[in-house]
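Supplementary Methods, section 5.1.

A reviewer requested that the exact input to the structure prediction be made available. We therefore reproduce it here, unchanged from the version used in the analyses.
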Amino acid sequence: MSGEYGEIGALLGQDRKGYSLPQKLYVGEQAFAFDTQVMLPSVWLYACTVAHIKKPGDWFLFEMADNSVIVLRGRDGAVRAFFNSCQHRGARICEAQRGSSPKLICPYHQWTYNLDGSLLGARNMGPEFDKSTINLTPVAVENIGGLIFICLTDTPPPIDRVKADIAAQIAVYDLEHCKIAVQDDLIEDANWKLVMENNRECYHCDANHPELISCLGNSGFGKGLPEDGNAEASAEAHLLAKRGEWAALGIDHDLVEFPDGWWHRIARLPLVDGAVSQTMDGKVASTKLIGPFETPETSSLSIWTQPNSWHHFCCDHVVTFSLTPLAADKTLLRTSWLVHEDAIEGVDYDPANLSAVWRATNGQDGYLAALNHRGIRTDGYRQGPYAPEEKLVENFKEFYVAQSRAALDGVAT
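The structure derived from this sequence is encoded token-by-token as follows.
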């Protein structure tokens, strides 16, 4: 294929099963443009949680490259999404990253919109102007158990299997009755695919994440589960015993691992040595537990979605992660910690303690992803082989290649 993305098809053709991607798909400017303008807009992207937009009028911006999307809560409680562009002459309507307003007002000429996107008022437009024909441009949006996903294309791919599987397992955590306690935005000096690949394996954890493995461990991330085929007998016995406890609580489910070509993984994992939360000491980060939990429970539910999110649910808090590409070598990692809406800062939880494990881990991962990016840029880079426990990295790569080929075919036609 020739044209604007002519190089991409050739690079995708160099993909090798069991090996990393060609160099320019990680560090090339054309690949960055293709990812942000063609591939990523064609798939479902995680944007935020319902806790980011708790009340009618609350809004939250999801931004990627030139696209800006307003995700908001309507007066009827429904979640909607619109492109952040006034239908007058195109000005951005919302500038802050989040806010709350009973209506949306364009700062340029004060065109005013209802929370359902309809035009409420436009000054001095003349007698023949019909405001009923004007609406903000909608964006496809899905609320999956409190996790909000958007798709920027006019023809979103199916999402029903993802919605059913995830909602069935996270409903117990009742995100509608959680609030945002802490949010961190970290810019990593690496391509977004490298940030994702780093998250998709724990091959690096023993040497780099002492805080994380002290409470979460390193099993269940491509190694250690019976389904992985590499679990030690003692670890497998422990997990089977824990699954008995989870069954008694009504929270046990089979591992969901990117089934039938879908783009989600769900696993409940035991925390380490009786830990009940992802904290430095393994104790609860918030004494106000969430969902139905009346006493601390010693597991976390982990969810991964392609291509841009992962999430951990504990009995006392939830931590969610999203990433968006900023440049070929810059990625925004957004981490949000949620607690029960009635939890009181300084009484029920300490924000520093709540966020300590993942702040440390994010910093370590940012360093590693940057190290990876800089090494790939050198003339010495070759597509390298995956270790057996990096199978989730390969799964992400296969998703990226398949979606990129499909998106490229769409551009060609």
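Residues 109 and 124 are 10 Å apart (CA to CA). These observations are discussed further in the main text.
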